[in-house]
Design brief:
Number of helices: 15
Strand content: 5-15%
Shape: globular
Low-confidence stretches: none
Order of helices and strands: HHHHHEEHHHHHHHEHHEEH
CATH topology of the largest domain: Fic-like fold
Mean pLDDT: 88
Largest sheet: 3 strands, antiparallel
Number of domains: 2
CATH class of the largest domain: Mainly Alpha
Number of strands: 5
Strand order of the largest sheet: 3-5-4
Helix content: 55-70%
Structural class: mainly alpha
Length: about 325
């Protein structure tokens, strides 16, 4: 009888500590989840898409991605617009896929990469190396081994008793090591880890972990390379657990005397630079006086947001943006 595949990974005290902290943080955030409105979930989804594509070199901002989502015209390289449209479609179907289904993985790749590569939805037929500038930093396994390697990996995922926090990170690393597609491996690996986590706790569908990874992009690649050198994915697991914990902590509203629920709502929908009308629309508010008294003025007075044209507070072109203090809330 063939022995089942076991991806090489050790368990460390740091992993146990981080996993425990994540579980506690998820519990706290779950209590507050019902207070999150649809606009906030959409904002997190946009941050996820922007973060994952930015790692792959896409330059579109959150504001441009929002415009594409809303069907507005955006002036940008056609390839980058296509990448965003594909990602939006993929995340719309995200919760219909099963993490242990290889067939669903191929469907997801077809959606993410349609119009970008000729073999979208199929494993690569040629050999590839992962480049850092002009240097090959990883030579992926030969194409004729991919089917067996991916079959073994999915077999392990379906049978493992590892906690989803560990299992999702192991899968992510192994996926990047195999590099099964001609392109799109990075975004697929991150997407599939989120899917595994989402099937453990639905909160993860709305947590922009990929945006946090983008902020630590160099460490992401260092963790992959170190795991490959050690033939043990422990460094990568520890890195991803820290990213997950940091994302949850940054997504958990901080209750402070300066931040009322109304100001908290305002901060959660403010993306980039937005006008007063945009903010009221995002919050679903029509009463301008109430918005000014309960939302806008307290946020300005607390130094959580600022005007883009402070010397002309009543300008029709006036917009608002988060301050560094506001971004920490």
């Amino acid at each position: 009888m063939k022995k089942s595949y076991q991806p090489p990974h050790s368990l460390t005290p740091a992993m146990l500590r981080l996993s425990s902290a994540i579980s506690e943080a998820v519990g706290r955030l779950s209590v507050l989840e019902d207070e999150k409105n649809l606009r906030l979930r959409q904002a997190n989804r946009i941050r996820t898409i922007q973060g994952s594509l930015a790692i792959e070199g896409n330059t579109l901002s959150e504001e441009q991605i929002t415009a594409i989502l809303e069907g507005k015209r955006v002036i940008a390289p056609p390839k980058e617009i296509q990448e965003v449209r594909n990602a939006i479609k993929a995340y719309e179907q995200f919760e219909t896929w099963k993490a242990a289904s290889e067939k669903d993985l191929l469907k997801a790749h077809a959606l993410l990469m349609t119009g970008l590569v000729d073999d979208a939805g199929s494993y690569r037929k040629g050999n590839v190396g992962v480049m850092n500038g002009d240097q090959v930093v990883h030579m992926a396994p030969p194409a004729n081994r991919i089917k067996n390697l991916m079959g073994d990996l999915f077999g392990w995922l379906a049978a493992t008793e590892e906690h989803p926090l560990i299992a999702s990170s192991v899968f992510h690393y192994e996926f990047e090591f195999i590099h099964p597609f001609s392109d799109g491996n990075g975004r697929m690996g991150r997407l599939w880890q989120t899917l595994i986590l989402n099937q453990w706790n639905p909160l993860f569908a709305n947590l922009p972990v990929e945006s946090m990874v983008h902020e630590h992009q160099s460490e992401y690649y260092q963790a992959i390379n170190l795991s490959t050198q050690k033939t043990d994915s422990a460094p990568f697991i520890e890195f991803m657990l820290q990213m997950i914990l940091s994302t949850i902590q940054s997504s958990t509203p901080q209750v402070t005397p300066q931040v009322t629920p109304q100001v908290g709502e305002l901060l959660s929908v403010l993306m980039g630079e937005m006008s007063r009308d945009d903010l009221q629309a995002a919050l679903g508010l029509q009463d301008r006086k109430s918005f000014s008294v309960r939302y806008l003025k307290p946020a300005l007075d607390a130094g959580l947001i600022e005007m883009t044209i402070p010397e002309k507070p009543n300008s029709r072109l006036q917009k608002y943006r988060l301050t560094s203090k506001g971004k920490k809330q």
